[in-house]
Amino acid sequence: MNMGNTLKPVKVGICGLGTVGGGTFNVLHRNARIITARAGRPVIIEQVGARRDNSDCDTGDINVTRDIFAVAHNPEIDILVETIGGYDVAKELILTAIEQGKHVVTANKALIAEHGNEIFQAARNKNVIVAYEAAVAGGIPIIKCLREGLSANSISWLAGIINGTGNYILTEMGDHNRPFADVLKEAQALGYAEADPTFDVEGIDACHKLTIMASIAFGIPLQFTKAYTEGISEITPSDIQYAASLGFRIKHLGVARKAANGIELRVHSTLIPSDRPLANINGVMNSVVVQGDGVGQTMYSGPGAGAEPTASSVIADIVDIARTIDAPDAAVNALGFSAESLSDTLPVLPITETVCSFYLRIHADDHPGVMNAVTRVLSRHGINIDAITQKVTREDDGCADIVILTHRTLEGTMDKAISELEALEDIKSPITRIRVETMA
Questions:
Q1: In which residue ranges of the chain is CATH 3.30.70.260 found?
Q2: Could you tell me which residues come within 8 angstroms of residue 115 by beta carbon, excluding any fewer than 6 positions away?
Q3: Is 8 annotated in the active site?
């Protein structure tokens, strides 16, 4: 029996026909046969809502409207796919679709990270599904891996390179000894970075994704505003070279860790030992490492953006919904835990209460006694030194860089030590601090 011909088709409405929406449209058409076979019923595009056409998409006789809310109100639509991005309009669109009893697939990581708790509650009230695999790491099925594949595990930590723009910039800076500003301009010219690159280079995009992954990993509500975010604009080629000489590479990481007193949720540049697989993810690629008690350490890598890689995740969600559309209660919970079992008993820790090892670069007068003064300050704060070296700089200012790797210490303690160090007369610039993760 051909189930694809006996079960009612699932009708999809795509809102937004840009990069992701266009990719979704094209892959749904190209792979219609295999998608139908996997879904167990036909999956067809019933309507498209888009402000403008996409020359790469042959919409043919498909109903195209400039009013995306017409898609949300169309009684023929079973699944609304939101790829317009942004906050206010996208939120209103999704909530309207939910109120109309439609399932939703979205690639909007900012909306889920910041308003997901409200959206998921609305979906529960109407007994519909909101799926968002494409919101994190593009084509990598990390949401499904965390929520389903690793559901037997107690996850202790995860860490990921989850913004391709930042990873491209750091890779180019390291491989070609180029300053941040130059590589950023190139990334914009290549289309990897937006005209306003703030979300990418200051860590906001990565923080949205980390917030979602941490919620699934630890069974906590989405808490984007409590996460710590730091960008890459202060990293210099010298830092990358110094790190390499110590056996490390610098990557911009999202780190979520379950500690005894709470959850660490932080995005920042990080030194990783150069022999770790995550240290060798380069260019625009994404990768996430997860530590579970049963399975141990697993790693997921692939393209974190792009039309068809992201469409791959969008359509995987469509197929999942199509399989359970007649019994939505059988679908996996949005965050992998039943709503009543989500708990904020373990608080998200402020960055001052997290514990880490540190790389410090201290630009100081090059004369005897300076290094001793630096080590005395660290000692007074109980900060142990793992390695210390003095580097000659190319700057003709009579100064040198003192580079230090510390043992693990409380971030708040390091704050106090750095303040005291920067007050010393011989210290000539703000101290560069980069956290260190061994990935062990």
A1: 353-435
A2: 87, 91
A3: no
Token readout for 212 is 């979602």
Domain with CATH 3.30.360.10 in the chain: 151-301
Residue span(s) of the chain under CATH 3.40.50.720 come to 3-139+307-341
Q: Domain 353-435: which topology?
A: Alpha-Beta Plaits (3.30.70)
Return d(Cα 229, Cα 4) in angstroms, integer. 47
Domain spanning 3-139+307-341, CATH architecture? 3-Layer(aba) Sandwich (3.40)
* Predicted TM-score (pTM) above 0.70: yes
Identify the CATH number of the domain defined by range 151-301: 3.30.360.10
Contact 105, 320 (CB under 8 A): no
| CA-based radius of gyration for the chain | 24
Q: What is the pLDDT along the chain (440 residues), one digit of tens a residue?
A: 344 456 899 999 999 999 999 999 999 999 999 999 999 999 999 999 999 999 999 999 999 999 999 999 999 999 999 999 999 999 999 999 999 999 999 999 999 999 999 999 999 999 999 999 999 999 999 999 999 999 999 999 999 999 999 999 999 999 999 999 999 999 999 989 999 999 999 999 999 999 999 999 999 999 999 999 999 999 999 999 999 999 999 999 999 999 999 999 999 999 999 999 999 999 999 999 999 999 999 999 999 999 999 999 999 999 999 999 999 888 899 999 998 899 888 999 999 999 999 999 999 999 899 999 999 999 999 999 999 999 877 677 889 999 999 999 999 999 999 999 999 999 999 999 999 999 87
Tokens of 68: 């995306």
The catalytically annotated residue of 209, 391, 416, 428 is: 209
